[in-house]
Amino acid sequence: MFEMVFTRRFSMGHRLIHDTNDVCSTPHGHNEEVIVYLIDENAQVLDGSHNMVLPFSKAKTAWHRFIDGSVDHAFQLSEDDPLLDWFKANEPQRISHLMITPGDPTTELLACLLMSKVNAILKDEQTTLRCHRIEIKETPTNTVCFTGNPFDFLPKGNNAQQRWWERPDMSISDVCL
Questions:
Q1: Is the pLDDT of residue 122 over 90?
Q2: What is the pLDDT of residue 1?
Q3: Position 57 confidence tier, pLDDT thresholds 50, 70, 90
Q4: What is the spatial distance between Cα 127 and Cα 148, in angstroms, rounded to a whole number?
Q5: Who contacts 81 (Cβ-Cβ below 8 Å, separation ≥6)?
Q6: Dihedral of CA 144/9/117/131: which sign?
Q7: For labelling alongside 99, which of 6, 107, 136, 169 has CA 20 to 30 A away?
Q8: 159, burial (CB in 10 Å: exposed 0-12, middle 13-18, buried 19+)
Q9: Domain 3-166, CATH class in plain words
């Protein structure tokens, strides 16, 4: 089976308000790297002509646009972080640059959210590719790897509408909807 692997770097800021560590509850940032591992769910024998599952540009363009245009330099906040209300009242023009997460925006949570998002994008593009593994390098020494179904690990909400990580658009928040 063939596996396509794409890497993208991004900068981000966040804070963990439910963490007991004062360092992480203070807004801070990381330069991160996300690596997605894609497999073809309908693997075929190479055809003897163009011999590829899908052109790389077709497989990665929307994903890279999402990371570069929405995730890079976003400020990640829990949906119950009081800073969200501050932004709504004082800097509403910045809300589109806030990634709102269900609970603390940890690297583990981000891995599940981003895997769900890349799979929504791939499905919308009607490819047979699926992300089966994702790695997020938070720092040069800390990496989270995730395989599996992200919905088995994401916090369960009572919201009937699709959340931003389930939609193939470029959104990182449901606040703007």
A1: yes
A2: 78
A3: confident
A4: 19
A5: 15, 17
A6: negative
A7: 6
A8: exposed
A9: alpha beta
Q: pTM of whole model > 0.85?
A: yes
Which of 11, 124, 151 has the alpha carbon at shortest distance from 68? 11
Helix pair angle (56-66, 107-124), 10° resolution: 130
**pLDDT recorded at residue 53:** 67
Residue 155 DSSP one-character state = P
Q: Where are the alpha helices (DSSP H) in 35-103?
A: 56-66, 82-90
What mean pLDDT is predicted for residues 86-101?
A: 95
Token pair 């179904």 is at which residue? 149
Q: What sign has the CA pseudo-torsion 17, 21, 24, 26? A: positive
Taking the CA atoms of residue 150, residue 154, residue 157 and residue 162 in that order, the dihedral angle to the nearest 10 degrees is: -30
- Unique residue bearing structure tokens 């963490």: 19
- Give me the residue spans of the domains in the chain: 3-166
Contact between 132 and 40 (Cβ < 8 Å): no
Give the CA radius of gyration of the chain. 17
The helix or strand, by DSSP H or E, that contains position 40, with its residue range, turns out to be strand 28-40
